[in-house]
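Give me structure tokens for this 170-residue protein.
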Amino acid sequence: MALTPVEIRHLAPPRTTFRGYGVAATDQLFEEIATSFEDVWRERADLADKVEQLETDLVRYRELESLLRTTLVSAEQASAHTRDQARREAELILSGAHAEAREIQLRAVAENERLERESRRLRLQLQEALSALGGPEAAEQAQEPEPPGELDEDAVEERSWYGLPDADAA
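Here you go.
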């Protein structure tokens, strides 16, 4: 049975007539026991309070840990989603740019062919007009020059992609 410090203070051992005890010494001993027990009792109560506080803190920290885990998982998912979305957008932009480049190239080839046909038509008209005005010698002089693919390689001026003379080639 657990005794409180107050119970120890009021504890009175039985006294015998022949074999008694020294009252002052025994009372002093009881006082020391009670004081020591009070200290232990207070310390026990303080420790119980501290345990309760630590358990409360532990619950709070576990909730915080759970929240942080959830936040981290959400952030990772958002990051992955954003990265995937950016990749898809980049692929879309790139495919659009490739399609536009193909369209521009096809238009340029078509325009080049149209201009070559127009040039041939105009040369034929010029030859016909010269032959009608000046005879066969004028028609021979106005004959069509060599096509661009058959020109002398040394005579061809280096041009940049934009059709301008290439400064690096000089």
